[in-house]
Amino acid sequence: MIKSPTIPRLLTLPVGLVPNGLRTGALVQILNRVFEPELRDGELDFLDGHVMRIGVDDARLEFRLTLVGDRIKAAPPRAATDLSIDGKVYDFLLLATRREDPDTLFFNRRLRLGGSTELGLYVKNFLDSVELEDRLGPLLKVMNGATDLLGRFGRG
């Protein structure tokens, strides 16, 4: 297994001071905006009635998400999960910036799936098919910069 760069613990401390509800709320807003066309077209309906947990190991973050109607919503913090995806900040950035395809990240266990295999396959295929570059605009440049920085200084 390839070792991923890790975000320095010192940088994770301020994030830990932000209440989980606010962090999850911010992520939900971003995801609803970025995936608006797919949500409108029902391409995320496979999440309806399911809870997906995203764990960011090195940042000590956890998000529980579900689909209600045509919107991604925060699931209750202790809700039972149908699918979990765990990894490091760097690997999630590689996925979001398309520097690595989902198959490579999952096959090399840099992103780890747990729970429903079927639901995991839907999520992986969705992430593989969606084209985000034009929608992310300046955020893509920031994410690429963060990926470069973490790749350079996050080893060890």
Describe this structure in words.
This protein is of the alpha+beta class and 156 residues long. Helices cover 49% and strands 17% of the residues. The protein has eight helices and five strands. A five-stranded mixed β-sheet has the order 3-2-1-4-5. The two termini are 15 Å apart.
Beta-strand percent range: 15-25%
Q: Give the distance, in angstroms, between the N- and C-terminal Cα atoms.
A: 15 Å
Could you give the order of the helices and strands? HHHEEEEHHEHHH
- Rounded Rg: 15 Å
Oligomer: single chain
Summarize the main sheet: 5 strands, mixed
Total DSSP E strands: 5
Low-confidence stretches: none
Shape: globular
Helix content: 40-55%
Largest sheet: spatial strand order: 3-2-1-4-5
Mean pLDDT: 89
Number of helices: 8
Structural class, by secondary structure, is alpha+beta
List keywords for this structure.
156 residues, 5 strands, 8 helices, alpha+beta
What are the SSEs and their pairings?
Blueprint: H1 9-17, H2 20-34, H3 36-40, E1 52-56, E2 61-68, E3 71-74, E4 83-87, H4 89-96, H5 102-107, E5 111-115, H6 117-129, H7 133-136, H8 138-153
Parallel strand pairs: 1-4
Antiparallel strand pairs: 1-2, 2-3, 4-5
